[in-house]
Amino acid sequence: MPELRKDPVLGRWIIISKERGSRPVDFVVEEYATKGGFCPLCPGNENTTPPEVLVYGREPSSLSNTPGWNLRVVPNKYPALVIEGDVDKEGVGIFDRMNGIGAHEVLVESPVHDETFIDLPPERMVQVFWAFRDRILDLGRDPRFKYVMVFKNSGRAAGASLEHSHSQLIALPILPRMIVSELEGSLSYYKYKERCIYCDVIRQELKEDIRVVCQNDDFVTLMPFAPRSPFEMWILPKKHSSSYITLPDSSFHSLTEIFSESMRRLNACIPNVPYNFVLHGAPLRSEALDYFHWHFEIRPKLSTIAGFEWGSGFYINSMPPEDAAQYLKDAIPA
Amino acid sequence: MPELRKDPVLGRWIIISKERGSRPVDFVVEEYATKGGFCPLCPGNENTTPPEVLVYGREPSSLSNTPGWNLRVVPNKYPALVIEGDVDKEGVGIFDRMNGIGAHEVLVESPVHDETFIDLPPERMVQVFWAFRDRILDLGRDPRFKYVMVFKNSGRAAGASLEHSHSQLIALPILPRMIVSELEGSLSYYKYKERCIYCDVIRQELKEDIRVVCQNDDFVTLMPFAPRSPFEMWILPKKHSSSYITLPDSSFHSLTEIFSESMRRLNACIPNVPYNFVLHGAPLRSEALDYFHWHFEIRPKLSTIAGFEWGSGFYINSMPPEDAAQYLKDAIPA
Lengths: 334, 334
Known about the structure:
Chain A is built from six helices and 15 strands. Chain A is of the alpha+beta class. Chain A has a ten-stranded antiparallel beta sheet with strand order 3-4-7-9-8-13-14-12-11-10, with helices on both faces. In chain A, strands 2-1-6-5 form a four-stranded antiparallel beta sheet, with no helix packed on it. The first copy, chain A, starts with a strand and ends with a helix. The model of chain A has no long low-confidence stretch (mean pLDDT 94).
């Protein structure tokens, strides 16, 4: 069983999960299923993954876990956390641990092996965003889970171990440190100003218009003032909302539109860019929060986190976001 | 001039430094001077780096910035922060910035291009540890600087842009986030227990003896209970001390001995392991702190920081530190 452990000084939790190999030799070579090799996410290989928990676009005549689908969500075969068991917390001398309870799912975004997320036509990309919502809603019913982290690794440099386009989600029994920090930081601002800091950022960015990449009626894509990585982008709803799952049905196409345009501009600028994105929203079962604002964060993986960043928590970025935003505005989305 | 910028939600500072290229194309290919190519750190090429600020083992007949040295410290030719100027802090609407004032130095650990840090014989490795101390002492006289972060990137995967063995240091006008967190976390424990948490960790680890890699009279190398990376190691002085620069002269050989043994065990286990290490000590000009304990953190670079880690601050580690410690104890140091 995987295990959650807490650093006694920093209060930072980590996951110890031996599923992916735990001998020194396992760290030397990484596997990566490229076109031509065996791919567990391709149609016809459904029996090599755990059974699907969600499927869209399944042909009426087809059976579960067989070909004939547009998008498929399955439990990760090598999960970082496992779904069965209780969250037992215990002390080990001065240390703290708990069972590695959670859910780890893979969202297969396309039946076509080499169709990337950026390639998806709007009517299929929107299904990815629907699936995020549906899985968060479903997992949120389990009282053991406090948060569902939705994320995507695209490209080997960004940590993808499979080439076939997919995103992932991990349901966690504790709030992740980064979300706690965002909640605390935005609450602290709210207490002082009685305004949402993200709303204030959006207002200032739209007015200054030097870090805005693109916008539509509902959303804006901007480069943060203090980005950790070159070409880092955030996509935020213009209207205040703390939780992704409350996004009205009518806004999903608008989200797809801006996400697609942002990624196509990035890809036009840096072809085949490896990247990650994550969804940050309020904790599961939270009431609407006046001080927090859900958003996507997109990190093109263009730099290495080396000793300085790792040891200081301080990032060095060689690309001012104002320049990056201009490059993306000038790019012609493919 | 580089710039420091603060994330308004998280309070996290980043450095914007355009020195290393700032067009999209610059992110596609990375340079890496391998054996056979031109190396600015090799003897004979001293004129391609800024003039040396510290040198050890210079032959009496040789001139500064010419061959004939064992170890050489020079300002980084492409510094993340610059030494000239004032730390002007200013607001930009709701954002905060300051000038990128600091020092960024390169410590060339050997005149021999392909002699690695791990290869260094004790009487030369000790010079590296002396140099860390001497540079921290010197830079600590500049009242603009609050902290000197000493770090090493070894191997391209760990962020090294030059093959020739070197470490680096960056003097910063603000305390890095990670140090602030360690100081706050250990102070909070001290207020409750009136003991140093690191001393308590060392006591428990030596007693349990399941995460200890090696030890001598003065130091212990252990795997932390909640490591972010496989085979992460910490080297701590057994006797409480908050600041590296107060390490007595007599202990430098002992530090060299344990550092060398730890790294040789690691390298025997995972040949040519890419790694980072960082030195964490008290802030510059700090009085002796009862609650904080200086240490080195060593991170073998064996995993990728992907979307989940980046977006959550939560690390997944597939190697339990107890197993890793056993592998290293069983290894025969090369």
